Amino acid sequence: MRKLLNMGLEAKINGILIGIITSIVVIISVFVLYDSTNEYYDNAERLSLQSAKTISFLPSLVNNQGLSEEAVQSIANQYIFENDIDFVIIKDSDGIIVTHPDPEFIGEYEAYDEHDAKTKLFGAYLTYETGRYQEPAIVSTAPIYQGDEFRVLEGVVKAGYFKSSITSNILDKLSTLIIIVVVFLLLSMLVSRLFTRYIKSQTLGYEPREITTILKNREKIFSSLDEGIIAADHSGNITYANESGKSFLPSNHDGANNIFHALPPEVGEMLKEEESIAERYFGVTIDGREIVILMKYLYEKEEAVGRIFILRDISAIAKLTNKLTVVESLFDDLRAQSHEYKNKLHLISGLLEMDKYQQIREVLNDEIDNFDSYNSSLVNIKEEHIKALLIAKMNKSSEKRIPFNINEESQLDKAAVSEGMINPLITIISNLIDNAIEAVAGIEHPEVHFYIGNFEGWMEIIVEDNGSGFDDEGKLFEKGFSTKGTKEERGYGLYNVNNNINALNGYLDFSHTDGVTRFIAEIPYQKEGNE
């Protein structure tokens, strides 16, 4: 059984088609043979009775002296020749055989059996099977009468067919049917082979189990991708979508099964019209999410048959960008801190060479005071990630000779910050402080102030600087907007800050009054179950 299941597609199709066609042909042949056999026997019975009746009514069969032997023999031979029956037996009323297929029986007496007796006594027309004459036969009997007004029984005529003749006709029919069956088998083999080749061409030569494996693996691969993959025909009707692709489709849109309807109207109309463009990128907003879409045409035999859309949520890219930005900022801060300490070590080394011990003591006291200042400012900030970030920013500002003051009332409990808030908070705090430090760089008496604490059950973050502020405040939080550098290099800091605050369901306020630029972020505390 396992060998049958492991057979190739071609062998299976050939076996199934040949088996079905052969079964149909054999069933039809058996039915035809059965029907023909019954027909042959029915015809034999009907024709033998008809022949017996016809001969019995021939006027030349009898004369004034009764049955004429010469006339009877001549009529019987002629009738056998013309009507293709096997034999005719005629005997007179006394049982003397007048004509017989075996000449030796002519003139002999044959007793009337029960069938002949019924015909002789009652004038009955009978058909029956008998084995009395050379071999089994189908025989019909009819009475022979003389006279019109007063009829006298002159004898009995028997006409019949040997069963061997009927069997021979059936065998001829069977031979014809066998030839037809063989021809149909050959045709079915040819048809099945052509059909198999067509199926194999449509399946690219793969076996069904191979196709199943490929489809399963393809679905596993596509389902594991974060990118959405959607295939559609020319009309935009979606023919395939992986799990990520389905998540990008509008949840409450009536036309969600059509990619043109799922996209914003202007984009859908543009795609319908621009069929000559083989590939293009574009950004859309679906259900409040910014999505980048790559559209390509699908071709079959150099003819476009549909399109494939690859979708990716920009927010995922933004999160990764934020993390990389924060990591890069921390590396810069650590590099600055390392550079600062290296400078101090060089200073101490030079003072040692000069035996300037008092100056060495002063440098170390300044460093100790800085540590005490750090500790006093950060004593109530218990969340280690935020605390480490603030220390790095303090060292960075120190290297740039920019005073960075952390409000001594700042506080942040570790339990108040859920796991999901840490990375967004690092992005928010890091970008706000970096912007403030850059804003005051190069001015006289620069100052940066930072505060983090609680405000009516919300986390409050305040960053202030005495920089010049921004010229175009309306575009402050737009992607790519920057007051410094080129668009490629900058313009994502405040955009990322705003996005992260929105993701935490918070608010960001901005003001510039009396020469002070102030950013205030208010973020609700989150529980672990609501991340």
Automatic annotation (TrEMBL):
Domain of life of the native organism: Bacteria
Sequence ranges assigned to domain Histidine kinase in this UniProt record: 336-527
Pfam families referenced in this protein's UniProt entry, alphabetically: HATPase_c, SPOB_a
Coiled coil: none
Keywords (A to Z) from UniProt: ATP-binding, Kinase, Membrane, Nucleotide-binding, Phosphoprotein, Transferase, Transmembrane, Transmembrane helix, Two-component regulatory system
Molecular-function annotations in GO: kinase activity
Family annotation (SMART domains): HATPase_c
Annotated TM spans: 12-34, 174-195
Name this polypeptide is given: Sensor histidine kinase regulating citrate/malate metabolism
